[in-house]
Protein backbone atom coordinates (compact mmCIF):
# COMPACT_ATOMS: atom_id res chain seq x y z
CA UNK A 1 0.00 0.00 0.00
CA UNK A 2 1.37 3.44 -0.91
CA UNK A 3 0.65 6.63 1.00
CA UNK A 4 -2.21 7.65 -1.31
CA UNK A 5 -4.00 4.36 -0.74
CA UNK A 6 -3.37 4.64 2.99
CA UNK A 7 -4.87 8.12 3.22
CA UNK A 8 -7.82 7.16 1.03
CA UNK A 9 -8.51 4.37 3.51
CA UNK A 10 -8.20 6.41 6.71
CA UNK A 11 -9.83 9.65 5.49
CA UNK A 12 -13.12 8.91 7.23
CA UNK A 13 -11.34 8.71 10.60
CA UNK A 14 -8.47 11.10 9.97
CA UNK A 15 -9.61 14.00 12.15
CA UNK A 16 -9.79 11.77 15.20
CA UNK A 17 -6.47 10.14 14.34
CA UNK A 18 -4.74 13.48 13.74
CA UNK A 19 -5.89 14.88 17.08
CA UNK A 20 -4.16 11.99 18.83
CA UNK A 21 -0.92 12.61 16.90
CA UNK A 22 -0.42 16.34 17.52
CA UNK A 23 -2.33 19.37 18.75
CA UNK A 24 -3.66 22.58 17.23
CA UNK A 25 -0.60 24.30 18.69
CA UNK A 26 1.37 23.05 15.66
CA UNK A 27 -0.96 24.92 13.33
CA UNK A 28 -1.02 28.03 15.48
CA UNK A 29 2.76 28.27 15.61
CA UNK A 30 3.20 27.68 11.88
CA UNK A 31 0.65 30.31 10.90
CA UNK A 32 1.94 32.82 13.45
CA UNK A 33 5.47 32.38 12.15
CA UNK A 34 4.34 33.18 8.60
CA UNK A 35 2.68 36.40 9.82
CA UNK A 36 -0.15 35.87 7.33
CA UNK A 37 -2.18 38.81 6.03
CA UNK A 38 -5.89 38.84 5.34
CA UNK A 39 -6.88 38.62 1.68
CA UNK A 40 -3.65 36.92 0.57
CA UNK A 41 -3.54 33.55 -1.20
CA UNK A 42 -2.11 30.37 0.30
CA UNK A 43 -1.47 26.83 -0.89
CA UNK A 44 -1.89 24.01 1.62
CA UNK A 45 0.21 21.09 0.33
CA UNK A 46 -0.86 17.67 1.56
CA UNK A 47 -3.91 19.37 3.03
CA UNK A 48 -5.57 16.20 4.29
CA UNK A 49 -8.93 17.03 5.83
CA UNK A 50 -8.06 20.69 6.34
CA UNK A 51 -6.03 21.06 9.54
CA UNK A 52 -3.93 23.96 8.18
CA UNK A 53 -6.60 25.21 5.75
CA UNK A 54 -9.06 25.80 8.58
CA UNK A 55 -6.59 28.00 10.42
CA UNK A 56 -5.79 30.00 7.28
CA UNK A 57 -9.41 30.58 6.33
CA UNK A 58 -10.23 31.87 9.81
CA UNK A 59 -7.41 34.39 9.29
CA UNK A 60 -9.13 35.66 6.14
CA UNK A 61 -6.94 34.02 3.51
CA UNK A 62 -7.99 32.46 0.22
CA UNK A 63 -6.75 28.87 0.26
CA UNK A 64 -6.06 26.21 -2.33
CA UNK A 65 -6.16 22.87 -0.51
CA UNK A 66 -4.16 20.30 -2.46
CA UNK A 67 -3.87 16.61 -1.66
CA UNK A 68 -3.19 13.43 -3.60
CA UNK A 69 -6.11 11.70 -1.85
CA UNK A 70 -9.54 12.39 -3.29
CA UNK A 71 -11.13 10.87 -0.20
CA UNK A 72 -9.33 13.34 2.05
CA UNK A 73 -10.46 16.30 -0.04
CA UNK A 74 -14.04 15.05 -0.11
CA UNK A 75 -14.01 14.78 3.68
CA UNK A 76 -12.67 18.34 3.90
CA UNK A 77 -15.24 19.66 1.46
CA UNK A 78 -18.07 18.21 3.55
CA UNK A 79 -16.63 19.82 6.68
CA UNK A 80 -16.09 23.23 5.10
CA UNK A 81 -19.26 23.53 3.03
CA UNK A 82 -19.84 26.99 4.52
CA UNK A 83 -16.36 28.23 3.54
CA UNK A 84 -16.33 30.11 0.24
CA UNK A 85 -12.57 30.80 0.17
CA UNK A 86 -11.32 27.23 -0.37
CA UNK A 87 -10.51 25.60 -3.70
CA UNK A 88 -9.89 21.84 -3.71
CA UNK A 89 -7.23 20.39 -6.02
CA UNK A 90 -5.90 16.87 -6.44
CA UNK A 91 -2.12 16.99 -6.75
CA UNK A 92 1.21 15.99 -5.26
CA UNK A 93 4.04 18.00 -3.76
CA UNK A 94 6.58 16.91 -6.35
CA UNK A 95 4.53 18.14 -9.31
CA UNK A 96 2.35 21.06 -8.25
CA UNK A 97 -0.23 21.92 -10.94
CA UNK A 98 0.17 25.71 -10.77
CA UNK A 99 2.19 28.35 -12.57
CA UNK A 100 5.31 29.95 -11.18
CA UNK A 101 4.78 32.69 -8.59
CA UNK A 102 1.15 31.86 -7.81
CA UNK A 103 0.92 32.07 -4.00
CA UNK A 104 1.79 34.42 -1.15
CA UNK A 105 2.19 31.57 1.33
CA UNK A 106 2.71 27.84 1.10
CA UNK A 107 2.25 25.47 4.02
CA UNK A 108 3.04 21.76 4.19
CA UNK A 109 2.23 20.09 7.49
CA UNK A 110 3.41 16.49 8.02
CA UNK A 111 3.57 16.04 4.26
CA UNK A 112 7.30 15.92 3.54
CA UNK A 113 7.90 12.53 5.16
CA UNK A 114 5.36 10.99 2.76
CA UNK A 115 6.92 12.19 -0.52
CA UNK A 116 9.47 10.23 -2.51
CA UNK A 117 11.82 13.16 -3.15
CA UNK A 118 11.63 15.84 -0.42
CA UNK A 119 14.20 18.11 -2.07
CA UNK A 120 12.20 18.12 -5.30
CA UNK A 121 9.00 18.85 -3.39
CA UNK A 122 10.62 21.87 -1.75
CA UNK A 123 11.85 23.13 -5.13
CA UNK A 124 8.30 22.83 -6.48
CA UNK A 125 6.86 24.74 -3.53
CA UNK A 126 9.48 27.46 -3.97
CA UNK A 127 8.66 27.65 -7.68
CA UNK A 128 5.00 28.50 -7.10
CA UNK A 129 5.75 31.09 -4.42
CA UNK A 130 5.43 34.74 -5.37
CA UNK A 131 8.44 37.01 -4.76
CA UNK A 132 8.27 37.93 -1.10
CA UNK A 133 6.24 34.81 -0.39
CA UNK A 134 6.93 32.46 2.51
CA UNK A 135 7.20 28.68 2.65
CA UNK A 136 6.47 27.06 6.03
CA UNK A 137 6.96 23.34 6.57
CA UNK A 138 6.19 21.50 9.80
CA UNK A 139 7.41 17.92 10.03
CA UNK A 140 9.19 15.32 12.12
CA UNK A 141 12.75 15.32 13.35
CA UNK A 142 14.78 12.24 12.49
CA UNK A 143 13.71 9.21 14.56
CA UNK A 144 14.00 5.41 14.68
CA UNK A 145 10.40 4.30 15.14
CA UNK A 146 10.10 1.81 12.29
CA UNK A 147 6.43 1.06 12.93
CA UNK A 148 5.56 4.51 11.55
CA UNK A 149 6.82 3.32 8.15
CA UNK A 150 5.16 -0.05 8.47
CA UNK A 151 1.75 1.05 9.79
CA UNK A 152 1.41 4.66 8.59
CA UNK A 153 3.31 4.21 5.32
CA UNK A 154 5.79 7.01 6.00
CA UNK A 155 8.51 7.11 3.36
CA UNK A 156 11.01 8.88 5.62
CA UNK A 157 11.77 8.45 9.29
CA UNK A 158 11.88 12.19 9.86
CA UNK A 159 14.65 14.54 8.80
CA UNK A 160 17.83 16.16 10.01
CA UNK A 161 17.19 19.89 10.41
CA UNK A 162 20.43 20.86 8.68
CA UNK A 163 19.40 18.80 5.66
CA UNK A 164 16.02 20.52 5.47
CA UNK A 165 17.75 23.90 5.68
CA UNK A 166 20.03 22.91 2.79
CA UNK A 167 17.03 21.91 0.66
CA UNK A 168 15.44 25.32 1.29
CA UNK A 169 18.65 27.14 0.35
CA UNK A 170 19.18 24.97 -2.73
CA UNK A 171 15.64 25.90 -3.82
CA UNK A 172 16.68 29.55 -3.81
CA UNK A 173 14.93 30.59 -0.60
CA UNK A 174 16.46 33.14 1.76
CA UNK A 175 16.22 34.00 5.47
CA UNK A 176 15.94 30.28 6.10
CA UNK A 177 15.76 28.82 9.57
CA UNK A 178 14.71 25.46 10.98
CA UNK A 179 13.94 25.03 14.66
CA UNK A 180 11.90 22.96 17.08
CA UNK A 181 8.48 24.25 18.03
CA UNK A 182 8.26 22.59 21.44
CA UNK A 183 5.65 20.09 20.30
CA UNK A 184 5.82 16.37 19.58
CA UNK A 185 3.98 13.93 17.36
CA UNK A 186 2.82 10.90 19.35
CA UNK A 187 1.58 7.54 18.10
CA UNK A 188 1.14 4.04 19.44
CA UNK A 189 1.70 0.95 17.31
CA UNK A 190 -1.44 -1.03 16.67
CA UNK A 191 0.58 -4.24 16.33
CA UNK A 192 3.73 -4.02 18.43
CA UNK A 193 2.62 -1.98 21.41
CA UNK A 194 5.46 0.49 20.77
CA UNK A 195 4.94 4.17 21.51
CA UNK A 196 6.55 6.98 19.55
CA UNK A 197 7.04 10.57 20.62
CA UNK A 198 8.89 12.54 17.94
CA UNK A 199 9.77 16.22 18.15
CA UNK A 200 8.36 18.50 15.45
CA UNK A 201 10.37 21.18 13.62
CA UNK A 202 9.23 24.18 11.66
CA UNK A 203 11.17 25.41 8.62
CA UNK A 204 10.65 28.83 7.02
CA UNK A 205 12.09 30.38 3.91
CA UNK A 206 11.33 33.54 1.93
CA UNK A 207 11.47 33.92 -1.86
CA UNK A 208 13.18 37.08 -3.10
List descriptors.
34% helix; 8 helices; 208 residues; 7-stranded mixed β-sheet; globular; alpha/beta
Would you kindly provide a written description of the structure presented here, covering whatever features stand out?
By secondary structure, the chain is an alpha/beta fold. 34% of the residues lie in helices and 30% in strands. The protein contains eight helices and seven strands. The protein has helices spanning 3-10, 14-21, 24-34, 51-58, 70-79, 118-127, 147-152, 161-170, and strands spanning 41-45, 62-67, 86-90, 103-109, 129-140, 174-188, 195-206. The protein has a seven-stranded mixed β-sheet. The longest helix has 11 residues, at 24-34. It is globular, with a radius of gyration of 16 Å. The N and C termini lie far apart (39 Å). The model has no long low-confidence stretch (mean pLDDT 95).
Order of helices and strands: HHHEHEHEEHEHHEE
**In total, how many beta strands?**
7
Strand content: 25-35%
Structural classification: alpha/beta
Mean pLDDT: 95
Strand order across the biggest sheet?
3-2-1-4-5-7-6
Number of DSSP helices? 8
Helix content class: 25-40%
* Spatial gap, N to C terminus: 39 Å
Provide the low-confidence segments as ranges. none
Instruction: Give the biggest sheet.
Output: 7 strands, mixed
Instruction: Return Rg in Å.
Output: 16 Å
- What is the molecular shape? globular
Q: How would you summarize this macromolecular structure in one to three sentences?
A:
The protein is 34% helix and 30% strand.
